[in-house]
Protein backbone atom coordinates (compact mmCIF):
# COMPACT_ATOMS: atom_id res chain seq x y z
CA UNK A 1 0.00 0.00 0.00
CA UNK A 2 1.57 3.25 -1.13
CA UNK A 3 0.38 6.58 0.31
CA UNK A 4 -0.54 9.38 -2.08
CA UNK A 5 1.18 11.84 0.28
CA UNK A 6 3.26 11.24 3.35
CA UNK A 7 1.14 11.92 6.43
CA UNK A 8 2.52 14.38 8.93
CA UNK A 9 0.67 13.83 12.18
CA UNK A 10 1.83 15.27 15.47
CA UNK A 11 -1.34 16.47 17.26
CA UNK A 12 -4.30 14.08 17.59
CA UNK A 13 -7.77 14.83 18.95
CA UNK A 14 -10.09 12.06 20.14
CA UNK A 15 -13.81 12.78 20.46
CA UNK A 16 -15.19 10.70 23.31
CA UNK A 17 -13.75 8.94 26.37
CA UNK A 18 -15.80 5.78 26.15
CA UNK A 19 -14.25 2.38 25.45
CA UNK A 20 -13.30 3.44 21.91
CA UNK A 21 -11.68 6.73 22.81
CA UNK A 22 -9.74 5.19 25.71
CA UNK A 23 -8.42 2.38 23.50
CA UNK A 24 -7.42 4.88 20.82
CA UNK A 25 -5.49 6.97 23.34
CA UNK A 26 -3.64 3.92 24.66
CA UNK A 27 -2.46 2.86 21.21
CA UNK A 28 -1.61 6.38 20.07
CA UNK A 29 0.44 7.13 23.18
CA UNK A 30 2.20 3.78 22.83
CA UNK A 31 3.63 4.95 19.49
CA UNK A 32 5.68 7.63 21.31
CA UNK A 33 5.47 9.80 18.22
CA UNK A 34 2.77 12.39 18.85
CA UNK A 35 3.32 15.73 20.56
CA UNK A 36 -0.27 15.80 21.81
CA UNK A 37 -3.06 13.28 22.24
CA UNK A 38 -6.13 15.08 23.58
CA UNK A 39 -9.49 13.47 24.44
CA UNK A 40 -12.57 15.68 24.48
CA UNK A 41 -15.32 14.17 26.62
CA UNK A 42 -18.65 15.91 27.20
CA UNK A 43 -19.39 13.95 30.36
CA UNK A 44 -17.71 14.45 33.73
CA UNK A 45 -16.27 10.90 33.80
CA UNK A 46 -14.94 8.31 31.36
CA UNK A 47 -16.98 5.32 30.23
CA UNK A 48 -19.17 6.80 27.50
CA UNK A 49 -22.46 5.02 27.03
CA UNK A 50 -21.81 2.86 30.12
CA UNK A 51 -22.47 5.87 32.35
CA UNK A 52 -25.87 5.31 33.93
CA UNK A 53 -28.31 8.20 34.29
CA UNK A 54 -31.67 7.88 36.08
CA UNK A 55 -33.12 10.51 33.74
CA UNK A 56 -35.75 9.15 31.37
CA UNK A 57 -36.51 12.04 29.03
CA UNK A 58 -34.51 14.55 27.02
CA UNK A 59 -35.67 18.15 26.61
CA UNK A 60 -37.07 18.86 23.17
CA UNK A 61 -37.30 15.17 22.29
CA UNK A 62 -39.43 14.76 19.17
CA UNK A 63 -41.48 11.94 17.66
CA UNK A 64 -40.83 10.72 15.01
CA UNK A 65 -37.06 10.95 14.44
CA UNK A 66 -36.18 9.64 11.00
CA UNK A 67 -32.96 11.58 10.41
CA UNK A 68 -29.79 12.11 12.44
CA UNK A 69 -29.71 15.12 14.68
CA UNK A 70 -27.91 18.22 13.38
CA UNK A 71 -27.41 19.73 16.85
CA UNK A 72 -25.09 18.71 19.71
CA UNK A 73 -26.26 16.28 22.37
CA UNK A 74 -28.51 17.89 24.97
CA UNK A 75 -26.61 18.68 28.16
CA UNK A 76 -28.68 18.30 31.33
CA UNK A 77 -27.86 19.81 34.71
CA UNK A 78 -29.83 17.92 37.38
CA UNK A 79 -30.94 19.97 40.38
CA UNK A 80 -28.09 20.45 42.79
CA UNK A 81 -25.52 18.78 40.54
CA UNK A 82 -22.18 20.41 39.77
CA UNK A 83 -21.61 18.06 36.85
CA UNK A 84 -23.42 17.80 33.55
CA UNK A 85 -25.31 14.64 32.54
CA UNK A 86 -26.24 13.09 29.22
CA UNK A 87 -28.80 10.33 28.84
CA UNK A 88 -27.55 6.89 27.88
CA UNK A 89 -29.45 3.68 27.05
CA UNK A 90 -28.29 1.99 30.27
CA UNK A 91 -31.16 0.60 32.35
CA UNK A 92 -31.26 -0.65 35.93
CA UNK A 93 -31.05 -4.39 35.29
CA UNK A 94 -28.76 -4.25 32.25
CA UNK A 95 -25.99 -6.81 32.06
CA UNK A 96 -23.77 -7.69 29.14
CA UNK A 97 -24.72 -10.10 26.38
CA UNK A 98 -21.05 -10.98 25.98
CA UNK A 99 -18.93 -13.01 28.42
CA UNK A 100 -16.34 -10.73 29.98
CA UNK A 101 -13.55 -13.07 28.85
CA UNK A 102 -14.35 -12.03 25.26
CA UNK A 103 -15.30 -8.47 26.06
CA UNK A 104 -12.12 -7.38 27.83
CA UNK A 105 -9.22 -5.44 26.35
CA UNK A 106 -6.16 -7.47 25.41
CA UNK A 107 -4.04 -6.06 28.24
CA UNK A 108 -6.63 -5.87 31.01
CA UNK A 109 -8.87 -8.65 32.27
CA UNK A 110 -12.00 -8.01 34.29
CA UNK A 111 -11.39 -8.39 38.05
CA UNK A 112 -11.24 -11.91 39.40
CA UNK A 113 -14.64 -13.01 40.63
CA UNK A 114 -16.60 -11.06 37.99
CA UNK A 115 -19.74 -12.91 36.91
CA UNK A 116 -19.69 -14.30 33.37
CA UNK A 117 -22.10 -11.59 32.18
CA UNK A 118 -21.32 -8.58 34.38
CA UNK A 119 -23.75 -5.86 35.38
CA UNK A 120 -23.42 -2.46 33.74
CA UNK A 121 -21.91 -0.93 36.88
CA UNK A 122 -19.07 -3.47 36.76
CA UNK A 123 -18.34 -2.57 33.13
CA UNK A 124 -18.29 1.14 33.96
CA UNK A 125 -15.82 0.59 36.79
CA UNK A 126 -13.70 -1.56 34.47
CA UNK A 127 -13.53 1.33 31.99
CA UNK A 128 -12.72 3.83 34.74
CA UNK A 129 -9.85 1.58 35.83
CA UNK A 130 -8.71 1.26 32.21
CA UNK A 131 -8.65 5.06 31.97
CA UNK A 132 -6.13 5.37 34.81
CA UNK A 133 -3.04 7.13 33.56
CA UNK A 134 -4.96 8.89 30.77
CA UNK A 135 -6.49 11.59 32.97
CA UNK A 136 -3.95 14.29 31.97
CA UNK A 137 -4.99 13.76 28.34
CA UNK A 138 -8.76 14.10 28.94
CA UNK A 139 -10.71 17.36 28.83
CA UNK A 140 -13.96 16.54 30.65
CA UNK A 141 -17.27 18.38 30.30
CA UNK A 142 -16.03 19.67 26.97
CA UNK A 143 -18.29 19.28 23.95
CA UNK A 144 -17.01 19.30 20.37
CA UNK A 145 -19.26 21.60 18.34
CA UNK A 146 -17.56 21.58 14.96
CA UNK A 147 -14.74 19.86 13.09
CA UNK A 148 -13.65 21.11 9.70
CA UNK A 149 -10.72 21.49 7.35
CA UNK A 150 -10.31 24.45 4.99
CA UNK A 151 -10.01 22.09 2.01
CA UNK A 152 -9.73 18.36 1.76
CA UNK A 153 -7.60 18.82 -1.34
CA UNK A 154 -4.84 19.95 1.01
CA UNK A 155 -4.53 16.76 3.01
CA UNK A 156 -1.57 18.18 4.92
CA UNK A 157 -3.59 21.06 6.39
CA UNK A 158 -4.84 20.95 10.00
CA UNK A 159 -8.28 20.09 11.28
CA UNK A 160 -9.95 22.96 13.13
CA UNK A 161 -12.04 22.15 16.19
CA UNK A 162 -14.53 24.35 17.98
CA UNK A 163 -15.20 23.15 21.52
CA UNK A 164 -17.48 24.28 24.32
CA UNK A 165 -16.52 24.15 27.99
CA UNK A 166 -19.84 23.12 29.51
CA UNK A 167 -18.87 24.37 32.99
CA UNK A 168 -17.88 27.89 31.92
CA UNK A 169 -19.89 28.11 28.68
CA UNK A 170 -16.70 29.30 27.00
CA UNK A 171 -16.10 28.38 23.33
CA UNK A 172 -12.53 27.95 22.09
CA UNK A 173 -10.80 26.74 18.93
CA UNK A 174 -7.88 24.41 18.45
CA UNK A 175 -6.00 22.76 15.59
CA UNK A 176 -5.04 19.11 15.23
CA UNK A 177 -3.39 17.06 12.52
CA UNK A 178 -5.70 14.06 12.91
CA UNK A 179 -9.08 13.29 14.45
CA UNK A 180 -10.48 10.10 15.97
CA UNK A 181 -14.28 10.11 16.17
CA UNK A 182 -15.06 7.83 19.10
CA UNK A 183 -18.49 9.16 20.03
CA UNK A 184 -20.32 5.87 19.52
CA UNK A 185 -23.66 5.14 17.87
CA UNK A 186 -26.08 4.40 20.72
CA UNK A 187 -27.18 7.95 21.37
CA UNK A 188 -29.47 9.42 18.69
CA UNK A 189 -32.70 7.35 18.66
CA UNK A 190 -34.37 6.32 15.43
CA UNK A 191 -38.17 6.51 15.66
CA UNK A 192 -40.01 5.54 12.48
CA UNK A 193 -42.76 7.71 11.04
CA UNK A 194 -45.62 5.21 11.27
CA UNK A 195 -49.05 6.51 10.18
CA UNK A 196 -51.00 7.74 13.19
CA UNK A 197 -47.95 7.82 15.49
CA UNK A 198 -47.88 11.61 15.88
CA UNK A 199 -51.60 11.83 16.72
CA UNK A 200 -51.33 8.87 19.10
CA UNK A 201 -48.44 10.59 20.89
CA UNK A 202 -50.46 13.81 21.17
CA UNK A 203 -53.49 11.98 22.52
CA UNK A 204 -51.52 9.90 25.03
CA UNK A 205 -48.38 11.79 26.11
CA UNK A 206 -45.69 9.56 27.61
CA UNK A 207 -47.22 6.40 26.12
CA UNK A 208 -44.66 6.27 23.29
CA UNK A 209 -41.06 5.82 24.34
CA UNK A 210 -37.74 4.53 23.01
CA UNK A 211 -35.44 1.91 24.50
CA UNK A 212 -32.94 4.67 25.33
CA UNK A 213 -35.32 5.95 28.01
CA UNK A 214 -36.22 2.61 29.62
CA UNK A 215 -34.92 2.24 33.18
CA UNK A 216 -36.90 -0.36 35.14
CA UNK A 217 -39.92 -2.65 34.61
CA UNK A 218 -42.00 -1.30 37.49
CA UNK A 219 -43.09 1.70 35.43
CA UNK A 220 -45.05 -0.78 33.24
CA UNK A 221 -46.83 -2.60 36.07
CA UNK A 222 -50.29 -3.82 35.04
CA UNK A 223 -50.00 -2.11 31.65
CA UNK A 224 -50.68 -3.49 28.21
CA UNK A 225 -47.33 -3.08 26.46
CA UNK A 226 -46.03 -3.43 22.91
CA UNK A 227 -42.29 -3.78 22.35
CA UNK A 228 -41.36 -2.77 18.78
CA UNK A 229 -38.21 -4.60 17.74
CA UNK A 230 -36.62 -7.92 18.60
CA UNK A 231 -32.92 -7.20 18.94
CA UNK A 232 -31.04 -7.93 22.15
CA UNK A 233 -32.42 -4.89 23.99
CA UNK A 234 -35.99 -5.61 22.91
CA UNK A 235 -35.76 -9.20 24.08
CA UNK A 236 -34.21 -8.22 27.40
CA UNK A 237 -36.83 -5.56 28.10
CA UNK A 238 -39.60 -7.99 27.16
CA UNK A 239 -38.32 -10.50 29.71
CA UNK A 240 -38.15 -7.86 32.43
CA UNK A 241 -41.49 -6.16 31.72
CA UNK A 242 -43.24 -9.54 31.52
CA UNK A 243 -42.75 -9.91 35.27
CA UNK A 244 -45.09 -6.99 36.05
CA UNK A 245 -47.15 -6.08 32.95
CA UNK A 246 -50.38 -7.48 31.54
CA UNK A 247 -49.64 -10.71 29.73
CA UNK A 248 -48.73 -11.42 27.12
CA UNK A 249 -46.36 -8.57 26.34
CA UNK A 250 -46.68 -8.02 22.59
CA UNK A 251 -43.48 -7.97 20.54
CA UNK A 252 -43.86 -6.47 17.06
CA UNK A 253 -41.22 -7.68 14.62
CA UNK A 254 -40.43 -7.08 10.95
CA UNK A 255 -38.32 -10.21 10.71
CA UNK A 256 -37.26 -13.06 12.96
CA UNK A 257 -34.65 -12.19 15.54
CA UNK A 258 -31.03 -13.24 15.25
CA UNK A 259 -31.38 -13.82 19.01
CA UNK A 260 -34.20 -16.31 18.50
CA UNK A 261 -32.97 -18.58 21.31
CA UNK A 262 -33.25 -15.74 23.83
CA UNK A 263 -36.61 -14.71 22.43
CA UNK A 264 -38.10 -18.17 22.82
CA UNK A 265 -36.80 -18.12 26.38
CA UNK A 266 -39.59 -15.63 27.24
CA UNK A 267 -42.87 -17.61 26.98
CA UNK A 268 -44.86 -14.70 28.44
CA UNK A 269 -44.43 -12.78 25.17
CA UNK A 270 -46.59 -12.96 22.05
CA UNK A 271 -44.91 -12.22 18.72
CA UNK A 272 -46.95 -10.13 16.30
CA UNK A 273 -46.23 -8.59 12.87
CA UNK A 274 -45.05 -5.11 12.01
CA UNK A 275 -47.27 -2.18 13.05
CA UNK A 276 -48.77 -0.52 9.97
CA UNK A 277 -50.86 2.13 11.72
CA UNK A 278 -51.54 3.69 15.11
CA UNK A 279 -55.23 4.22 15.91
CA UNK A 280 -55.56 7.06 18.43
CA UNK A 281 -59.33 6.86 18.84
CA UNK A 282 -59.17 3.19 19.82
CA UNK A 283 -55.86 3.62 21.67
CA UNK A 284 -54.77 0.84 19.40
CA UNK A 285 -52.60 -0.35 16.51
CA UNK A 286 -53.19 -2.20 13.28
CA UNK A 287 -50.65 -4.89 12.34
CA UNK A 288 -49.58 -5.90 8.84
CA UNK A 289 -51.81 -8.98 8.98
CA UNK A 290 -54.87 -6.76 9.59
CA UNK A 291 -55.21 -7.65 13.27
CA UNK A 292 -56.06 -4.72 15.59
CA UNK A 293 -55.11 -4.46 19.25
CA UNK A 294 -56.79 -1.80 21.40
CA UNK A 295 -56.33 -0.48 24.91
CA UNK A 296 -52.58 -0.09 24.52
CA UNK A 297 -50.99 1.61 27.53
CA UNK A 298 -47.38 1.80 26.43
CA UNK A 299 -45.24 1.30 23.33
CA UNK A 300 -41.46 0.97 23.63
CA UNK A 301 -39.68 1.45 20.33
CA UNK A 302 -36.55 -0.71 20.32
CA UNK A 303 -35.84 0.53 16.83
CA UNK A 304 -32.17 1.38 17.16
CA UNK A 305 -30.12 4.50 16.69
CA UNK A 306 -28.83 6.75 13.95
CA UNK A 307 -25.19 7.16 13.10
CA UNK A 308 -25.00 10.80 14.10
CA UNK A 309 -22.13 13.30 13.93
CA UNK A 310 -23.55 16.83 14.32
CA UNK A 311 -20.03 18.25 14.58
CA UNK A 312 -19.21 17.08 11.03
CA UNK A 313 -21.91 18.98 9.14
CA UNK A 314 -19.38 20.67 6.83
CA UNK A 315 -17.55 17.47 5.85
CA UNK A 316 -17.64 16.75 2.12
CA UNK A 317 -18.10 14.11 0.95
CA UNK A 318 -20.30 13.57 3.96
CA UNK A 319 -19.88 10.53 6.18
CA UNK A 320 -23.51 10.98 7.19
CA UNK A 321 -26.14 9.59 4.87
CA UNK A 322 -29.55 11.32 5.14
CA UNK A 323 -31.19 8.32 6.80
CA UNK A 324 -28.40 7.88 9.35
CA UNK A 325 -28.49 4.11 8.79
CA UNK A 326 -24.80 3.81 7.98
CA UNK A 327 -21.60 5.83 7.69
CA UNK A 328 -20.26 6.39 4.19
CA UNK A 329 -16.75 6.54 2.71
CA UNK A 330 -15.01 4.50 5.41
CA UNK A 331 -12.27 2.05 4.45
CA UNK A 332 -12.39 -1.01 6.70
CA UNK A 333 -15.23 0.74 8.56
CA UNK A 334 -12.79 3.19 10.11
CA UNK A 335 -10.68 5.51 7.88
CA UNK A 336 -12.24 8.31 5.83
CA UNK A 337 -11.38 7.67 2.20
CA UNK A 338 -11.08 11.37 1.29
CA UNK A 339 -8.53 12.04 4.06
CA UNK A 340 -6.83 9.31 6.12
CA UNK A 341 -6.23 11.73 9.00
CA UNK A 342 -9.89 11.32 9.97
CA UNK A 343 -10.86 8.00 11.54
CA UNK A 344 -13.96 6.49 13.17
CA UNK A 345 -14.12 3.79 15.81
CA UNK A 346 -16.83 1.28 16.69
CA UNK A 347 -18.80 1.71 13.47
CA UNK A 348 -19.37 -2.06 13.00
CA UNK A 349 -22.35 -3.63 14.74
CA UNK A 350 -23.06 -7.15 16.04
CA UNK A 351 -19.39 -7.76 16.75
CA UNK A 352 -17.50 -7.78 20.06
CA UNK A 353 -16.81 -4.07 20.59
CA UNK A 354 -13.84 -3.68 22.96
CA UNK A 355 -11.31 -5.91 21.13
CA UNK A 356 -12.68 -4.63 17.83
CA UNK A 357 -11.83 -1.00 18.64
CA UNK A 358 -8.43 -2.10 19.90
CA UNK A 359 -7.69 -3.72 16.54
CA UNK A 360 -8.84 -0.57 14.76
CA UNK A 361 -6.78 1.68 17.05
CA UNK A 362 -3.64 -0.36 16.42
CA UNK A 363 -3.89 0.16 12.66
CA UNK A 364 -4.81 3.84 12.89
CA UNK A 365 -2.02 4.67 15.34
CA UNK A 366 0.61 2.92 13.20
CA UNK A 367 -0.55 4.73 10.06
CA UNK A 368 -0.49 8.13 11.72
CA UNK A 369 2.89 7.50 13.33
CA UNK A 370 4.32 6.77 9.88
CA UNK A 371 5.14 3.13 10.58
CA UNK A 372 2.40 1.79 8.30
CA UNK A 373 1.44 3.17 4.90
CA UNK A 374 -2.27 3.83 4.35
CA UNK A 375 -3.91 2.62 1.15
CA UNK A 376 -4.34 5.14 -1.63
CA UNK A 377 -7.69 6.89 -1.91
CA UNK A 378 -8.50 4.77 -4.98
CA UNK A 379 -7.76 1.57 -3.05
CA UNK A 380 -9.90 2.63 -0.12
CA UNK A 381 -12.84 3.65 -2.28
CA UNK A 382 -12.59 0.37 -4.18
CA UNK A 383 -12.87 -1.48 -0.85
CA UNK A 384 -15.97 0.54 0.09
CA UNK A 385 -17.53 -0.06 -3.33
CA UNK A 386 -16.99 -3.79 -2.98
CA UNK A 387 -18.66 -3.80 0.44
CA UNK A 388 -21.73 -2.08 -0.99
CA UNK A 389 -21.87 -4.52 -3.87
CA UNK A 390 -21.87 -7.44 -1.43
CA UNK A 391 -24.06 -6.00 1.36
CA UNK A 392 -26.20 -3.37 -0.34
CA UNK A 393 -27.19 -0.12 1.37
CA UNK A 394 -28.41 0.66 4.85
CA UNK A 395 -27.74 -1.03 8.18
CA UNK A 396 -26.26 -4.32 6.88
CA UNK A 397 -23.25 -2.49 5.47
CA UNK A 398 -21.73 -2.44 8.98
CA UNK A 399 -22.94 -5.81 10.27
CA UNK A 400 -20.10 -8.16 11.17
CA UNK A 401 -21.72 -11.03 13.03
CA UNK A 402 -19.65 -14.07 13.96
CA UNK A 403 -17.40 -15.25 12.32
CA UNK A 404 -16.97 -11.97 10.41
CA UNK A 405 -15.95 -10.10 13.59
CA UNK A 406 -13.30 -12.71 14.41
CA UNK A 407 -11.91 -12.43 10.89
CA UNK A 408 -12.01 -8.61 11.09
CA UNK A 409 -10.07 -8.48 14.35
CA UNK A 410 -7.46 -10.90 13.06
CA UNK A 411 -7.18 -9.16 9.70
CA UNK A 412 -6.44 -5.84 11.37
CA UNK A 413 -4.00 -7.56 13.73
CA UNK A 414 -2.11 -8.98 10.77
CA UNK A 415 -2.10 -5.60 9.08
CA UNK A 416 -0.64 -4.04 12.23
CA UNK A 417 2.24 -6.52 12.19
CA UNK A 418 3.37 -5.09 8.83
CA UNK A 419 4.32 -1.79 10.47
CA UNK A 420 7.98 -0.83 10.43
CA UNK A 421 9.73 -1.74 13.67
CA UNK A 422 11.05 1.21 15.71
CA UNK A 423 13.24 -0.07 18.59
CA UNK A 424 14.98 3.30 18.71
CA UNK A 425 11.74 4.85 20.03
CA UNK A 426 11.56 2.36 22.86
CA UNK A 427 8.32 0.83 21.61
CA UNK A 428 6.90 -2.30 23.22
CA UNK A 429 8.01 -5.76 22.11
CA UNK A 430 11.39 -4.67 20.84
CA UNK A 431 10.02 -1.96 18.58
CA UNK A 432 6.89 -3.67 17.23
CA UNK A 433 4.60 -1.54 19.37
CA UNK A 434 1.59 -2.24 21.56
CA UNK A 435 0.14 -5.62 20.65
CA UNK A 436 -3.49 -5.66 19.45
CA UNK A 437 -5.80 -8.62 20.09
CA UNK A 438 -5.64 -11.79 18.04
CA UNK A 439 -8.37 -14.38 18.43
CA UNK A 440 -7.06 -17.93 18.51
CA UNK A 441 -9.14 -21.09 18.27
CA UNK A 442 -10.22 -20.90 21.92
CA UNK A 443 -11.52 -17.34 21.55
CA UNK A 444 -13.32 -18.29 18.37
CA UNK A 445 -14.81 -21.34 20.07
CA UNK A 446 -16.27 -19.14 22.81
CA UNK A 447 -17.46 -16.54 20.29
CA UNK A 448 -19.41 -19.18 18.37
CA UNK A 449 -21.23 -20.19 21.56
CA UNK A 450 -22.11 -16.78 23.01
CA UNK A 451 -25.86 -17.28 22.56
CA UNK A 452 -25.77 -20.75 24.13
CA UNK A 453 -23.73 -19.41 27.04
CA UNK A 454 -26.21 -16.57 27.57
CA UNK A 455 -29.11 -19.01 27.59
CA UNK A 456 -27.31 -21.18 30.14
CA UNK A 457 -26.78 -18.11 32.31
CA UNK A 458 -30.42 -17.03 32.04
CA UNK A 459 -31.52 -20.50 33.06
CA UNK A 460 -29.91 -19.86 36.46
CA UNK A 461 -32.36 -17.04 37.19
CA UNK A 462 -31.39 -14.82 40.10
CA UNK A 463 -28.35 -17.03 40.79
CA UNK A 464 -26.72 -16.28 37.44
CA UNK A 465 -24.24 -13.77 38.88
CA UNK A 466 -22.86 -16.51 41.13
CA UNK A 467 -21.32 -18.12 38.05
CA UNK A 468 -17.82 -16.71 37.52
CA UNK A 469 -16.45 -18.79 34.65
CA UNK A 470 -17.57 -20.45 31.44
CA UNK A 471 -16.72 -23.80 33.00
CA UNK A 472 -19.21 -23.06 35.80
CA UNK A 473 -21.89 -22.85 33.12
CA UNK A 474 -20.76 -26.07 31.41
CA UNK A 475 -18.58 -24.64 28.63
CA UNK A 476 -15.14 -26.22 28.95
CA UNK A 477 -12.80 -25.61 26.02
CA UNK A 478 -10.11 -27.95 27.36
CA UNK A 479 -12.64 -30.79 27.56
CA UNK A 480 -13.85 -29.94 24.05
CA UNK A 481 -10.29 -30.30 22.76
CA UNK A 482 -9.92 -33.67 24.46
CA UNK A 483 -13.20 -34.86 22.98
CA UNK A 484 -12.12 -33.62 19.57
CA UNK A 485 -8.86 -35.56 19.81
CA UNK A 486 -10.88 -38.59 20.88
CA UNK A 487 -12.98 -38.39 17.74
CA UNK A 488 -16.31 -37.55 19.34
CA UNK A 489 -18.95 -35.92 17.14
CA UNK A 490 -19.08 -32.26 18.05
CA UNK A 491 -20.75 -29.09 16.97
CA UNK A 492 -18.50 -26.57 15.23
UniProtKB/TrEMBL annotation:
The keyword Flavoprotein applies. Pfam families: FMO-like (PF00743), NAD_binding_8 (PF13450). The keyword Secreted does not apply. Keywords: FAD, Flavoprotein, Monooxygenase, NADP, Oxidoreductase. Its cofactor is FAD. It comes from the Eukaryota. GO terms for molecular function: flavin adenine dinucleotide binding; N,N-dimethylaniline monooxygenase activity; NADP binding. Belongs to the FMO family. PANTHER family: DIMETHYLANILINE MONOOXYGENASE (PTHR23023). This is Flavin-containing monooxygenase.
